[in-house]
Amino acid sequence: xxxxxxxxxxxxxxxxxxxxxxxxxxxxxxxxxxxxxxxxxxxxxxxxxxxxxxxxxxxxxxxxxxxxxxxxxxxxxxxxxxxxxxxxxxxxxxxxxxxxxxxxxxxxxxxxxxxxxxxxxxxxxxxxxxxxxxxxxxxxxxxxxxxxxxxxxxxxxxxxxxxxxxxxxxxxxxxxxxxxxxxxxxxxxxxxxxxxxxxxxxxxxxxxxxxxxxxxxxxxxxxxxxxxxxxxxxxxxxxxxxxxxxxxxxxxxxxxxxxxxxxxxxxxxxxxxxxxxxxxxxxxxxxxxxxxxxxxxxxxxxxxxxxxxxxxxxxxxxxxxxxxxxxxxxxxxxxxxxxxxxxxxxxxxxxxxxxxxxxxxxxxxxxxxxxxxxxxxxxxxxxxxxxxxxxxxxxxxxxxxxxxxxxxxxxxxxxxxxxxxxxxxxxxxxxxxxxxxxxxxxxxxxxxxxxxxxxxxxxxx
Length: 461
Description:
Elements: H1 3-23, H2 48-61, H3 78-90, H4 101-107, H5 111-139, H6 160-171, E1 175-177, E2 189-190, E3 200-201, E4 203-207, E5 217-230, E6 235-245, H7 249-259, H8 271-282, H9 284-296, E7 305-311, E8 315-316, H10 317-331, H11 342-355, E9 360-361, E10 367-371, E11 377-382, E12 407-413, H12 416-427, H13 435-448, E13 458-460
Antiparallel strand pairs: 1-13, 2-3, 4-5, 5-6, 6-7, 7-10, 8-9, 10-11, 11-12
Helix pairs in contact: 1-3, 8-9, 8-13, 9-12, 10-11, 10-12
GO molecular function: intramolecular lyase activity
Protein name: Chalcone isomerase domain-containing protein
Keywords: Membrane, Transmembrane, Transmembrane helix
């Protein structure tokens, strides 16, 4: 390059720097916004440093093939560097600002002030949400409702006796034992405790021999029912009803009288004894003792029972199965030596397989778990071939022989420990699946011993 051409190029660069300094002299100065440009970044030509680094690496391996450069390197001009520094100080270029500090300088709000503002907004929304929960769930009184969903206001023209009936219906209903079996072709009903579930039949008829084509139906009597709810909002999951085979009621009464430690000749319990029995069945330790002994009896002294589950909203088999499995695993702490073997682990796997791979359980369709006198568990679920509109319910006037309409066999569990732990989930221990259902069943059990042994059917009081 000739000296004249080099001088001309330097003059153009100096003029451009001076023009830039003049054009931006009226902008606000911010010398601390960006550090001054280092000498390494102002070398001329612009990529001389990069070219020098790459050239040194190449020359180490290829010294023989290197050729002299066409133009000699140009040293940086100190005057040009000074002009660039002055231009940068006069007009600092905005850099990437991840936290928005430059924006806050323009708006007059600091980063700390923005964080305080966001924290106040979050706290306000949280306090409003908690306030709504406190007002709606704790502070405001909960008026009982009719079974159809109508509210029972305090100032409504309803007698005290009817109010008590509706309050009992909301709690799950109180069921006791009658003296005679039902001789009609249809059955009576009791409120389910949920407006999403139809009334519960006082008697259901389940197969006496679940295996076989020609099944003989056996009568089961309702002892109590309640609603299973989850979370502090009281979200209803399903309605649970507990039934006892009518032919097994005498054995059940003998178990209850034996628990009271009364003379063997006694056929009923006095009022103080019934109160003591109720307190024991509702206590943590007493309920575990009674139901463990009650469920461990076999054959001649065994009691055939059934749990009828009706979802209040559409759900599926895996959801119900997982809840039961968690409850069973939680109750294995009661007499853990009974469950400490590999066979019980296999039984839990087979219990899961009974409900695995199946479709949803529609709202209002019943699912029945039957436990025979030897502890074997039989599961019945909704039949998908029977539509909801075609379903015949005992609570809606269906005949006794149509009790199993819309139900099909899901599977059998021959290990009695599975049914034992599952029944304990509802009735024994400190934490049960439904406290309302346990209270209702305990009321029914207490009424069993208030009349002579051999009394059978249940009635609503």
